[in-house]
Design a protein that fits this description.
Strand order of the largest sheet: 1-2-3-6-5-7-4-8
Number of strands: 8
Number of helices: 5
Shape: globular
Radius of gyration: 16 Å
Order of helices and strands: EEEHEHHEEEHEH
Length: 218
């Protein structure tokens, strides 16, 4: 069931006696962002496409380290990366994700699920990203975010052939894996999000999906 509330499309979904709303609040995806995304797919993955689409094979959970949804959204909204010298040399395309979960568990969809977002090196071409607002020591992720992530992972796994559920900190374990396509051997960042405790809770609650184990890093 869909409704329009405050200019946003809200999709009401029911599962196992509980309901969640997916609120469509799209970030800017204009011609400039589309072209930058297509360029990223080509230069980093060797994928020459007419449309910036992906075939989802994994879900990657993140944190924003930004205290509010509004500030997190505004960070992702521009097409051009505003800062981030650690990754700007690799592409001018701004970071983003398909979903963002606010601290009260509200789920926002920022991009269509099969549109590429820049959120995980080497794997953007096959990964749906879920950002969680917060994540600092002073502002740890909440129980409501855990519950929303569990629901969202199950929801996405029913729609797509999802093979892996990973935390952002685990992305380099896929180097050498068939899904890993990054061509720039020097393009890496060190990540700790969304924390091992958060991932353990979400994994335990989504065992029914029979995700493949994350590769062991050599």
């Amino acid at each position: 069931m869909k409704r329009i509330i405050g200019g946003c499309f809200v999709l009401f979904l029911f599962s196992c006696g509980s309901s969640y709303q997916i609120i469509d609040k799209p970030i800017v995806f204009n011609k400039e962002r589309k072209n930058l995304t297509l360029k990223y797919l080509d230069e980093h993955y060797g994928l020459q496409q007419q449309e910036p689409t992906i075939v989802p094979k994994m879900i990657v959970l993140h944190w924003t380290v930004i205290p509010t949804f509004e500030a997190s959204f505004e960070t992702f909204n521009p097409a051009i990366l505003p800062s981030r010298p650690d990754i700007k040399a690799a592409s001018a395309l701004n970071v983003s994700s398909q979903f963002m979960v606010d601290r009260d568990g509200t789920i926002y969809r920022l991009l269509p699920e099969t549109t590429m977002a820049r959120h995980v090196i080497g794997l953007n071409h096959c990964a749906i990203g879920v950002e969680n607002v917060g994540g600092t020591a002073a502002l740890p992720l909440t129980k409501k975010q855990v519950a929303a992530n569990i629901w969202l992972v199950n929801y996405l796994s029913e729609k797509y052939d999802i093979e892996y559920l990973i935390g952002h900190y685990e992305y380099t374990n896929f180097e050498g894996h068939e899904l890993w396509l990054e061509k720039d051997a020097g393009y890496r960042t060190v990540k700790t999000d969304p924390g091992e405790d958060f991932m353990e809770k979400v994994r335990k609650a989504t065992l029914k999906n029979n995700f493949k184990p994350v590769p062991i890093k050599n």
